[in-house]
Amino acid sequence: xxxxxxxxxxxxxxxxxxxxxxxxxxxxxxxxxxxxxxxxxxxxxxxxxxxxxxxxxxxxxxxxxxxxxxxxxxxxxxxxxxxxxxxxxxxxxxxxxxxxxxxxxxxxxxxxxxxxxxxxxxxxxxxxxxxxxxxxxxxxxxxxxxxxxxxxxxxxxxxxxxxxxxxxxxxx
Length: 172
Known about the structure:
10% helix; single chain; SH3 type barrels; 38% strand; six-stranded mixed beta sheet; 4 helices; Elongation Factor Tu (Ef-tu), domain 3
């Protein structure tokens, strides 16, 4: 289960490979409006040990190209490859829509069947291009990947810190 520290931060982007020789990097944004990632102020690593300011952001084919303050050459940019960038949860706007959640709010929730049987803990929400996929880590064995739809996840209760899932064998 995530620590209180990790629930207080939300991953909003990931740095990819260096782009060119002047220190720019490829950047994948995880915000609803992808370009808004530059508007949230300083970004940091999950543990807060490094902070980053996006000085410039421009769209590319399936990502952005970003210039980050203090990163002036390709070698420095390469050292940032695969760094996830976070912001404190309080910088995000409140969600007023019912049945709409930040993915970070779901990580660590207990997953149970409609009968209340324990399935595991939500470990991630992925999107491989078609739609969201929920990953549940059971007490033992391989993670379970399921489409994150109303049919497979009919109930989310943030107050109780649990979700109800319909396993494939339950719906057949």
